[in-house]
Every structure is written in structure tokens, then in C-alpha cells.
Design goal:
- The longest helix is centred in the C-terminal third of the chain and has 15 residues.
- The chain is 23% helix and 24% strand.
- Strand 7, helix 3 and strand 8 form a beta-alpha-beta unit.
- By secondary structure, it is an alpha/beta fold.
- The structure holds iron/sulfur cluster (SF4).
- Iron/sulfur cluster (SF4) binds next to loops.
Amino acid sequence: MSLSVTEIFYSIQGESLYAGLPCAFIRLSGCNLRCRYCDTTYAYDAGSQMAIKDVIRELEAFQCPLIEVTGGEPLLQADAPALITKLLNRGYKVLLETNGTMDIRLVDARCIRIVDIKCPGSGESKKTNFSNLDYLTPADQVKFVLTDRADYDYAKNLLLDKWQGTPPVSVLFSPTSGMLDPASLAQWILADRMNVRLQLQLHKIIWPTENRGV
Ligand code: SF4
């Protein structure tokens, strides 16, 4: 079993309910989307082919109880679910960042799935697999990256239509850096009494000029 890997690194978790915690990351290569605001285009290309046992050895070297599997889109790789299960069996808390196009039932339910719902501003919203919303566990999280008011309205209406505004999981509204003013988003959330969490990309605040491995 092997995986195509863009990078393995240790950093601060930047965009989930676990934001702020030290975290070991593995970024798998390849993505089936091309979001307009993508900040990880370097993950599109094929990475280094690594055996799962070598990936685990590198991750374990960080001695960190929290591990995130991200991309690109990690679930494009057939062996990604096996990596996640092996890490869970070793006692790690495992987060998966997925772009919402793949079936999350592929992944061990002990894993915390952070599922993106792409909004129109991404240019990729038509590729969302909305069935995933029926397979979430209470520990999972749903994330909307928002570029403007139209994206906000899209996300708000989806939450109202699907869950009458009371989602069974944590919902993150994340303003795209440089495109949507967080203060405007905060105002909209408060005005509409939205039951969501405003999420800033913490790693971009800490390391504004870095664009890899943070
Ligand atoms: S899903 Fe993520 S990695 Fe893929 S294009 Fe969109 S932002 Fe980039």
C-alpha cells in the first residue's frame, strides 16, 4: 500500500474546531477541483510515492497526538482510508480535510471529517456530493469558504433548507483571505442569528508570507 505525498510537516492546526493545537500534517497529492481561491496549487502535481509504513514513521517522529490528512483531495487515493484506520488504531486523533466531492463513508467513522461545501465563488459548487450531509457523525464538521455575500447567502439557505438552521454538526464559515472582510461576515452572521462559527485561517495570520507547510 502506498500514497502520493506532497508534504509531511508539523504546524499549528489552522481551520477547524481544533485550530490552535499543534498538529502533524500529511498532504496527499492530486485534486479533482480547481477552486478560484486555491492556495495549495502545488498539491495538484504527483508527489513522492511513499509506502504507508514510511508515512506513519515520519508522522510518529513528531510525537503529536493530533494528525491531519489533507490535500489536494485525499480521498482520490485508494489507500488513504487505510492510512487513516492505521493511525486511529495506533491511538491518534485523526482529522480529514475533504473537499466534499467524495463519499465520506469510505473513511473510518472514528476519524473527524471536516467536509467542505463549495460555494459558487469557488467555481466548483456543482461538484459537491450533498449525500455526505446524511452521513456525518456529531464529531464531524462542515466548512464553507466564503468569497462574498452571494456565497454567504448560498451557505445560509443550504443550512436552512437542510437542517432548518440547526445543523447536527459544527458549521464553520471561513472568509477567503483578501476577498471577504471578516468584519462584514461577522455582521451578517450576527444579523441573521446564524448558529455557525466564524473561522479565520489561523496559520495565515501567524505566517502571512509562507505558502507551503503551514
Ligand atoms: S479542493 Fe482544495 S486543493 Fe482542491 S482546488 Fe479546491 S482549494 Fe485547492
